[in-house]
Amino acid sequence: MDWQRHIDTERLADWMVGQGLGQGEVANARLLGGGTQNLLLRFDYSGQDLVLRRPPPHLRANSNDTMRREMRMLEALAGTHVPHPRLVAGCPDEGVLGAAFYLMEPVEGFAPVNGLPSLHSSDTTVRHRMGLSLVEGITALGAVDYRAVGLEGFGKPDNYLQRQVRRWQQQLQGYADFPGWPGPQSIPGVDTIAGWLDRNRPSSFEPGIIHGDYHMANVMVRPDSGELAAIVDWELTTIGDPLLDLGWLLATWPGETVDEDTIEHFRLQPWDGFPDADDLVEHYRARSHRDLSAIDWYAVLACYKLGIILEGTHARACAGKAPKAIGDQLHASTVALFERALGWVR
Q1: How far is CA 5 from the centre of its chain?
Q2: Cα separation of 345 and 199, whole Å?
Q3: What secondary structure letter does DSSP report for 61?
Q4: What's the chain's average pLDDT?
């Protein structure tokens, strides 16, 4: 894509001078990823290797606020044990580049969903370690005292669990505004799952930081080992119940075989060697004081939320506002998530 239309490197360089990041020109700039969502631009500046992150070219209503929340979270996580991209500088002002943005250090690692390098694809021990290190990332995140790192008021933990089902029911109902969408009846068990979640909701929880969209597509792994290099894409981060991050991982984790009840986007090959879902839960239990007796509830909630999020693209596709092929693929993922949830509910 023509990223130069959305990132003026001369204005960016002037801003970086004002931030005390040196002087010079933005050099060797290249776009990371496809650029269909948030834009990531890696470049050299004044002897530094930097990555810029800004919202997509067509801003959504909350794009700039989301970017500001991300930079606040990354700033708060500095000095913690949570693997994350280090924030270099943030610009909440939309006037510099037409949107809020921030700079971070590049992460030396790879995204597992894009394929495993030879070390990881050839060694079951390394793959097993990959799975366990993902759990360690969220136990470290859930252990952070959000008040101590300046995140008081960042979210609304009061009645967090009680609000979830109704919040996402409303989201799903809103898709009726898109002509051609077949409606919630195209999703298996949507009312059954909502009712089960309301009846079985845990009575209490300990608030903490959650990533909000934790799965294989939102992490990077070190190239020389199975260790987690960084948790990325903090768009849905808030203060809530950290057990939802574990539930989200379980909701998107492949079964005994990679093709079994697995969302297309999260399939990895080869799969043998990765820990199974029970191993993930036990690894979390050994590293956290949180009560995991209702972990199935969190996994079902994760299926419910993520499925409804993905169904939004299908609804837009039905109205001609997104590519049909992508809408169909994501609807299939929604169906797979709800069928997985029904397996926990029954």
Answers
A1: 27
A2: 11
A3: T
A4: 93
How do residues 174-200 score in pLDDT, each as one tens digit?
A: 999 999 999 999 999 999 999 999 999
The DSSP secondary-structure symbol of 177 reads: G
Query: pTM, whole model, 2 decimals?
Result: 0.94
Half-sphere exposure of 117 (CA within 13 A, CB side): 13
Question: Distance of CA 214 to CAs 124, 180, 211, 231, 237, Å?
Answer: 23, 31, 6, 8, 10
How do the residues of the chain divide into helix, strand and coil, expressed in percent and rounded to 5?
Answer: 45, 10, 40
b/e per residue, 204-222, with b = 16+ CB within 10 A? ebebbbbbbbbbbbbbbbb
Q: Single out the residue of 203, 205, 201 nearest to residue 297, CA to CA.
A: 201
Helical axes 295-318 vs 160-174, angle rounded to 10°: 20
Taking alpha carbons only, the member of 261, 234, 245, 217 closest to residue 73 is: 234
